[in-house]
Write a structure and sequence with these properties.
The chain is mainly α and 281 residues long. It is built from ten helices and two strands, in the order αααααααββααα.
């Protein structure tokens, strides 16, 4: 349980920093300054996650074009945060622009491989693009969730509740391994407790952030955050274990690196965004 308290304390600091950046415009009474602070925070996280991803796949022998990878993720993140600053209702337009530009990005990544002398050039071109999908776009959608429906902080809280509920439940009651191949410590008992904590939080606390969202939408959002959160954590564990790594980094005590802390949010955010865009009005 000692590690649990280290994890919990570290998570509280992380959540406090994240929420402070989200509401920095209100705290400073300056929307522009707040937008810059939040964007800078997301850009810092984007670069950290991208760095860790490239380091992990580098251990597999891959050789992605890192300058292009950082350029893609930075441009995507800044573009999406810019959209949220000017108009919160053009999610579909952003999607259309992304679908137009992605083939160009892949073409550039493939062309660069002509000079790379790689034995698997298309693998390396694909790895160059993955942080764009895995990291930058999910993080870039966060300001849109905040501006359009004021649910970003709630998503953050639900993911935090799921992670800590699952860890605490697994430590105290866990007996049946969930997916030992990818995450030996994860149990069905802990997962069930995490889901229960998350749904209860969604139904009780969610309306405080946006009471115009019906309770059944909050129920679905809670399910999305808890289930996809768990699967996102397993995906990142699968990535690390493919190269024999336990943590993606060491920036956060008890958690590891950027990807270790943001893995669940990176997977869950697009699902929540799509659900709210399509079904919540």
């Amino acid at each position: 349980m000692k590690n649990f308290w280290v994890r919990a304390a570290s998570a509280v600091v992380y959540v406090a920093l994240f929420i402070s950046c989200i509401y920095s415009g209100d705290l400073l009474h300056n929307r522009l300054a707040g937008g810059i602070i939040f964007t800078a925070f997301l850009l810092f996280v984007t670069c950290g996650c991208t760095f860790e991803f490239f380091r992990i796949v580098g251990k597999q022998g891959a050789s992605p074009c890192r300058p292009l990878g950082y350029a893609y993720t930075s441009i995507a993140l800044l573009s999406l945060t810019g959209i949220s600053a000017f108009n919160s209702n053009i999610g579909f337009a952003a999607f259309g622009i992304a679908m137009t530009l992605l083939p160009i990005a892949f073409g550039l990544s493939a062309i660069v491989q002509l000079w790379n002398h790689s034995e698997q050039p298309f693998r390396d071109a694909a790895y160059t693009l993955i942080p764009l999908f895995y990291v930058a776009i999910p993080l870039g959608l966060m300001p849109l969730l905040h501006v359009s429906h004021n649910v970003l902080v709630m998503v953050l809280i639900m993911v935090w509740m799921n992670d800590n509920g699952a860890y605490m439940g697994g430590s105290l009651l866990g007996k049946h391994k969930m997916w030992e191949r990818h995450s030996p410590g994860k149990t069905w008992e802990g997962t069930a407790i995490g889901v229960a904590f998350t749904i209860a939080t969604a139904l009780i606390v969610g309306p405080l952030f946006n009471n115009s969202i019906a309770w059944y939408h909050w129920l679905v959002i809670g399910l999305i955050c808890s289930v996809i959160d768990t699967l996102g954590d397993l995906v990142e564990s699968m990535l690390k274990r493919s190269v024999g790594m336990k943590d993606s980094g060491n920036i956060m005590p008890g958690h590891g690196g950027f990807l270790d802390r943001f893995d669940s949010l990176l997977i869950a955010t697009p699902f929540v965004f799509v659900y709210i865009t399509l079904f919540v009005h």
